[in-house]
Amino acid sequence: MSRIVASPLLSVGFVVLAAFSAAAVVGTLWSPPPLTHDEFSYLLAAETFAGGRLANLPHPMGVHFESFHILQQPMYVSKYPPLQGMFMALGLLLGKVSAGVWISFALACGASCWMLRAWVGPVWALVGGLVLALHPQLVSVWGTWLWGGAAAMIGGMLVYGALPRLLARTNALASIMLGLGVSAFVLTRPYEGLAACVPAAALLAHDLFWRGRVLDGVRRLWPAAAVGAMAAAFLALYDYRTTGDPFTLPYTIYSEQYAGVPPLVFLPLAEATGTPNGSAAVSPHAAIREFFAPGGFESRPYYERRTPAGFVRGLGEKLEIFWRFFALVALPLPLLALPFVWRDRQVRFAAVGCTWFALALAVETYEQRHYAAPGVALGLVVWVSCLRAVTRWRPVGRPVGVALFVGVLCVAFVEHGVMARSFLERRARSPLMARPGIVARLEAMGGRHLVVVRYGPRHNVHTEWVNNDADIDAASVIWAREMDAAQNRALVEYFEDRRVWLLTPDDLNAPLRPYPAAAWPDGAVSR
């Protein structure tokens, strides 16, 4: 073990192997299909990239294929930045889409070990990296879930691993890593990534430029700038292929077409296009209108958190989500040692950076666990520094702190293991778990199939069945929303070589049956 600790390459490799093994075991034993809106969107991106394309042409029947977090116009693409989809595309090329998520998680944990070596030394870098790699909830969510989180975490680890190395001396490798870290932010979560970069940028500007070391700063940072420029050029190309404008993200187009509420609670509501909620009101599908309507799931947090009381309630909800995911009861206990390590300039910097990042999350309209991924690096520095101080505690001349360290980790892993199991069990209860079985049944019949989906009046908008492959026409099974008689007839005529089925997922007695022409009621509008 001493040889692994002493070698940067071996220690990082050891953590990468541990993280990949943990994610692969969990992902193999429990490998659910995509279940959430976001997962289907990322899967579309992965299939697009794996097919050697940046975007898919809009489909003539695209109005039947509308789904959440997916653009049908001007191109058929995911709304999200591309890096998560690129990792998943790598998994598809390797034969299993989730393998790409395992790789991203392993790289993030390996980067955490590299980062920590510059902050707390090699021994505690290995400890911190392994804690991250074996954290049950990180493994079960960011390590296996197609929604991801690890790709953005890579960015934070690289930025804050490069920071102390660049402040110490000219280091081309560290500068390249800084550029890669910033690029990961740009290609995953730009807003949270920008917030995570602010403390690092402020320190670099102060130590390298404010003190008059301008030429030295340029010499240290030009490799990072070159890497960042290449990432910006790729993103401009991606934007151009997906939206027709190198400076307009698919996310922006999607927000204009559907969302209508800004991602930050202090921003004003965009000018409406037809209704107070924006262009989503023109969608012919009731489920989509319901999702985006004022007071609906997508817009309700914005309206609620614009008031002081609602903003405070929102902070409580955010805190609960992040606390239950990262901390629970035992894991934060080492932070009680923070007053004793506060004199350390590096710890103070990381703690202040965490505070700044928390403020950036506080003003977001929504909250999800992976929003915090870019700031994990700073939190890990503070936590490992406190943990190191705890192990040095010898109040009676004995290593009491070491025993506390072992006890805290054991209890914490049990806590988070229970929470991870609960999360996996909740996911397993989704009605969409039946979707792959339906596809398998239809494929076993031979031929090609079109499934027309009709939702009931009490349909749960979070259970969305209409999601399709990147190459819709080539898919063996296509999913489409039922509309009025004329549009349904046009859909069936377009896919005249397919056997047509009616799926009523809210009818448990007869969810799938042949689609009769008599089932085309004039004026019927799908949910």
Describe the structure concisely.
With 527 residues, the chain is mainly alpha-helical. The protein has helices at residues 2-6, 8-29, 37-50, 83-94, 97-120, 122-134, 136-142, 150-168, 172-186, 190-210, 214-243, 250-259, 286-292, 300-305, 308-327, 338-341, 345-362, 376-391, 400-428, 435-445, 485-494; strands at residues 70-71, 77-78, 449-453, 477-481, 499-503, 512-514.
What features would you describe in this structure?
The protein is mainly α and 527 residues long. The protein has three domains: 2-31 and 79-245 and 307-426, no CATH class; 266-297, no CATH class; 432-519, no CATH class. 59% of the residues lie in helices and 4% in strands. It has 21 helices and six strands. The strands form two sheets. The protein has a four-stranded mixed beta sheet with strand order 4-3-5-6. Strands 1-2 form a two-stranded antiparallel ribbon. The radius of gyration is 25 Å and the shape is globular. Residues 272-281 and 521-527 have low confidence and may be disordered.
Q: Kindly state the mean pLDDT as a whole number?
A: 90
Distance between the termini: 59 Å
| Helix fraction bin | 55-70%
Number of folding domains?
A: 3
Give me the number of helical elements: 21
Structural class by secondary-structure content = mainly alpha
Features:
single chain, 527 residues, mainly alpha, 3 domains, four-stranded mixed beta sheet, two-stranded antiparallel ribbon, 59% helix, 4% strand, globular
